[in-house]
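Example record

One chain of 116 residues, shown exactly as stored in the release files.
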Amino acid sequence: MRDFRKYEIWQKAVDIADKVYIVCDGLPKYEFYALGDQLRRAAISISSNIAEGASRTSAIEFAHFLEIAIGSAFEVETQLQIARKRKYITDEVFNEIVSELQSEERQINTFISKLK
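Predicted structure tokens for this chain:
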């Protein structure tokens, strides 16, 4: 069993989720349970899948969970794009979080390549 806490990709995913929560706190009330809920769940899923994958005994299984984490990162980016288009967040906030997400996606992909 691997210690997921030591992975930079997990730490970074937790930081991204925290930033997404801050964004969700600023959404209009009528979006709290729609877009906000979806955004929070997808953001949490990134670090959660890294942690769950780390518990698997095979590298192939771990890589599978890392691929799911990337899918969740794509979901977050898509939902942030919608929030930006609806003017719930500024371009600056959007660009900052998306830049972090894309960096995270690259790091996860690199890690997957090493596992395989």
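Notes: DSSP finds four helices and no strands in the chain.
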